[in-house]
Amino acid sequence: MQRLRPHGKDIAAGMNARPGKWPAVCAVLLLAAVSFWSATASADPADDAFIASLANYGIEVRDSGIAIAMGHRVCKGFDNNANASVLAMKVKRDTDLSMKEASYFVGLSVAAYCPQYRGQIDRSLIWLIPGPPLM
User: Fold this and answer.
1) Do the beta carbons of residue 107 and residue 128 sit within 8 Å?
2) Does residue 91 contact residue 74 with C-beta atoms inside 8 Å?
3) What's the domain count of the chain?
4) Tens-of-pLDDT digits for all 135 residues of the chain?
5) Do residues 55 and 112 share a domain?
6) Beta carbons within 10 angstroms of residue 111's beta carbon
């Protein structure tokens, strides 16, 4: 079998890696790609939807981990029989959000993490809960 030689040059002559090194290089690149995709795929879809919903309502999230933890804390508040208005005031107190934004935060937390509490949202906040995502 003859090697292709464009313009009289060996194709492999201009490459730094020898033919024996290509499988190792490909394996490293494949491992890096798999690591990247598995890290991306391991994110929780509910968390991603929650953060995206906050952004859609104009609520800036500097640290998504803290926002997600606060969303779960809202649900724990409902577990302890707190009402939505009190939880919104706590979110406002603990953040730099306005009362309206804190109320949105409570509604979005319920939608993302504890929809079983939808009926316990105060009538003043019920309009804050978005419907299911349309995909």
Assistant:
1) yes
2) yes
3) 2
4) 443 344 444 444 444 545 555 555 445 555 555 455 444 444 689 999 999 999 999 999 999 999 999 999 999 999 999 989 899 999 999 999 999 899 899 999 999 999 999 887 766 555 555 566 555
5) yes
6) 23
